[in-house]
Structure formats: structure tokens, C-alpha cells
User: Which sequence fits this backbone?
């Protein structure tokens, strides 16, 4: 893709800033000027968006329409790798509305020293540098090439924050303490190293996902002995934190023998429609290595059923079209995957259908607990069971079709 000099970005950036204010994503004037003052197109020289069936397609961000798109609240995947059977998105430029809501929720004040985990394109580091001055901004990414590119882009627009290539799970002890930490990749549990590097009274905003799509953004306050806080009202999701030693888990091979048929009243894809129940299901025996996806009709390529499967050959397909609140379920294999969802739904009903802000998290060096209403209320320990996470988790993206993994005898 050729890079042409772009001179007419400023009115577009101003329009984006005005839009975010109008939508209630931005309140503080300093954040409004940051959005208007940072050329986002510098940070997304290459971008991909999913087409109707979930394949990543390149977007020409130098065309006028591409440039218009860059200055809208849109997530762009900025790096895609070939994962063999599928494409894997490995970095993205987060939707500016989500980013700005997070920055406002983080309650950043002049003079604060901020650590970002997940530099990615560098756009967020640029917003922080505009807001605070680059000398107070620190950002770490596991991918040295991303850090290199982000540094060059930031230098192009005159910002020199401290960027480091390292596994952000360890924070950045050599530059601690920080007043605020923001993680733009999700974690299955909050690394205690972050608490150690945060001043008492400081805050961390992080996406806690105990499994794929299972969790939300949580704002944690640093107390002398713990981090504690509640999940945010609106749902958000980031790529999962990866580590240098990550393995790829075995692909599920759904077993077609012993297929069982029944109905359910739970929405067919709770990871999209009922995210809180999906989180609770992780504490009700849902295996950690569950894969989620959709069945597509082979002719129309339209989704017909949601699909869960695990490497032990267990699977469940739930029809997307229900009748009188009942959805057809087909399942097979040794583990009754959908039962965990139904138990979680019962828990959710028993607690009078809580919204996200009724859920909170307490983190100590020894233990992490998810609770409802108060830290002394009903709670569950994190991680729900041993973790084996792979792949990326992204907000507002379509699940990968799993048509190839469909058991031969299954029809729906
Ligand atoms: C959603 S992107 C971050 C977007 C970024 N804040 C921006 O403004 O463009 C997530 C980033 O987290 C990074 N990441 C994943 N695992 C990490 C880890 N263990 N430590 C630090 N960064 C990590 C990825 O390389 C990716 O660049």
C-alpha cells in the first residue's frame, strides 16, 4: 500500500473529537484536544476489517474514504498473520470511543505518570502524551517490531514517551511507581506486579477475561494491601495478552457418535448476547479450552447455529432461531458443555439479573476473587480453573466460522 502525504486530516480529527463529545465518550476538554490534535492516520498505515464471513480484508487508508474511516470510531486490525487454517489478528488500533471512555474512566490528572500495557500502534500513547506530556508516559509491548514502528510514528509527530519491548505482565519496574496503569490487552487475572508498581491511591483499568469473551473492563483502586474495584457499565474487549512461551492448543475434533437433541431457553450465543452469563459459566464447569464459533449454511454462508467445542471431542450447536423462547440444541461428546451455561443462567437469575457494575474484583498477592455486590458477597476465585488460552480476543468482531469442524452426522 503506498503512503501519500496526507494534509487534510485536521478537520477530520476535529470532527471525530466533536462526535466523541456528542456521544458522551469524552467530557474533559484536554481529551477533546488530544483527539483533535493526534493524526490517527499516522498510526494506522495498514488496516484490515472483517468481511461478512469473518475474513480480514485490507482497507486502503490513504484513499479519501479510507481516511474518513480512520477518523471514525472504528477498530482497525493492523497486523494479521497466517495461522494455517485461519488468519490470526495480532494487533489492532482500538476504537477511539472505547479508548477515550477508558482514558476518562482512568481519571488521569495533570502530572500523573501513566503506564500503558500494549503499545500496539502507539495511538493511545500519543493521546496520553498530548494530555500529560510524553515524559510522563510509559508504554510496553511484547512485540519489538510494533514498538519500533510506534516509536517512529510518535517521533514523527514530536512525541518521545518511553517505549519498551517486554512482556507487560511484569509491568515496568525500572520506571515505577506509576499513578495510573492502563492495559490494552486482556488478562485472565491481574498480575500482582502491576499493584506493586502503582502508588497507593492509584488506579488500574484493565480488561479481565478469564476465558475468551468472558469478562469486562474493571477499574481497580490501589489499597495498601489489595486492588479492588468494579466492572464498567459498558462492555469492552481487547486482544488477549500473549507470552513468549504460548502454545497452540489442540484443535477440537467433534465426535459425531451419541448425538443428543434437546431445547434450551438460554440465548444461543451468550458470549455475544449475554456476556455476564458467559462469564459466570466459566465458574460453573465450562472447560477453559472451549472454542466458540458459528455454523454457516454451506450454500448461503449465513450463520445458522452457534457452536462450542472442546479438544476432548465435546461439542454443542444451538440453533440461532428459536420458537417461543426455546432454541434447539444438538450436542455430543463426553462433556455436557451447555449445562454450564444453564447453571450460570440460574446463578444470574438467583442474583436478580445483575448488570456489570454489580460485579467487582479483589486482587491480593495470594488470591483474586470475583464478587457480586460487595467483596463480602457471593464470590468465585480466579482463575476459574487452569488456563490454557490461545488466540486473540477482540471487541466487536465476528467469530470465526467453524464450518470445517462440523460433525458429519449433525444437521440443524
Ligand atoms: C489492542 S492492541 C493495543 C492497542 C494500542 N493501545 C493502540 O493504541 O494502538 C494490544 C497490544 O497488546 C500487545 N500485547 C500482547 N501481549 C502482550 C504482553 N504480554 N505484553 C505487552 N504487550 C502485549 C499486542 O502486541 C498488541 O500490540
Assistant:
Amino acid at each position: 500500500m503506498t503512503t501519500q502525504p496526507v494534509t487534510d486530516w485536521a478537520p477530520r480529527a476535529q470532527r471525530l473529537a466533536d462526535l466523541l463529545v456528542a456521544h458522551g465518550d469524552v467530557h474533559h476538554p484536554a481529551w477533546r484536544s488530544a483527539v483533535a490534535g493526534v493524526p490517527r492516520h499516522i498510526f494506522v498505515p495498514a488496516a484490515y476489517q472483517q468481511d461478512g464471513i469473518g475474513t480480514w480484508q485490507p482497507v486502503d487508508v490513504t484513499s479519501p474514504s479510507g481516511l474518513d474511516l480512520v477518523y471514525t470510531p472504528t477498530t482497525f486490525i493492523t497486523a494479521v498473520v497466517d495461522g494455517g487454517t485461519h488468519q490470526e489478528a495480532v494487533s489492532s488500533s482500538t476504537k477511539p470511543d472505547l479508548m477515550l471512555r477508558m482514558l476518562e474512566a482512568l481519571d488521569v490528572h495533570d502530572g500523573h505518570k501513566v503506564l500503558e500495557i500494549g503499545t500496539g500502534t502507539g495511538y493511545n500513547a500519543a493521546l496520553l502524551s498530548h494530555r500529560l506530556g510524553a515524559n510522563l508516559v510509559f508504554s510496553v509491548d511484547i512485540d519489538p517490531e510494533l514498538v519500533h514502528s510506534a516509536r517512529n510514528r510518535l517521533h514523527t509527530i514530536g512525541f518521545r514517551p518511553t517505549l519498551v519491548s517486554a512482556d507487560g505482565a511484569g509491568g515496568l519496574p525500572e520506571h515505577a511507581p506509576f499513578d495510573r496503569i492502563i492495559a490494552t490487552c486482556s488478562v485472565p487475572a491481574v498480575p500482582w506486579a502491576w499493584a506493586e508498581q502503582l502508588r497507593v491511591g492509584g488506579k488500574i483499568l484493565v480488561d479481565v477475561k478469564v476465558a475468551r469473551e468472558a469478562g469486562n473492563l474493571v477499574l481497580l483502586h490501589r489499597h495498601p494491601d489489595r486492588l479492588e474495584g468494579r466492572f464498567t457499565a459498558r462492555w469492552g474487549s481487547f486482544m488477549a495478552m500473549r507470552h513468549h512461551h504460548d502454545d497452540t492448543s489442540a484443535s477440537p475434533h467433534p465426535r459425531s457418535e451419541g448425538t443428543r437433541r434437546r431445547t434450551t431457553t438460554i440465548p444461543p450465543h451468550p458470549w455475544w448476547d449475554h456476556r455476564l452469563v458467559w462469564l459466570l459459566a466459566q465458574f460453573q464447569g465450562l472447560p477453559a479450552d472451549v472454542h466458540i464459533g458459528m455454523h454457516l449454511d454451506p450454500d448461503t454462508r449465513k450463520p445458522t447455529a452457534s457452536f462450542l467445542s472442546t479438544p476432548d471431542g465435546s461439542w454443542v450447536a444451538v440453533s440461532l432461531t428459536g420458537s417461543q423462547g426455546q432454541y434447539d440444541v444438538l450436542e455430543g461428546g463426553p462433556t455436557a458443555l451447555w449445562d454450564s451455561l444453564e447453571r450460570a443462567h440460574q446463578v444470574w437469575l438467583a442474583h436478580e439479573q445483575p448488570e456489570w457494575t454489580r460485579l467487582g474484583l479483589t486482587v491480593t498477592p495470594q488470591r483474586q476473587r470475583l464478587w457480586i455486590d460487595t467483596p463480602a458477597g457471593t464470590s468465585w476465585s480466579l482463575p476459574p480453573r487452569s488456563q490454557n488460552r490461545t488466540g486473540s480476543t477482540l471487541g466487536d468482531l465476528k467469530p470465526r466460522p467453524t464450518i470445517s469442524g462440523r460433525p458429519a452426522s449433525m444437521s440443524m
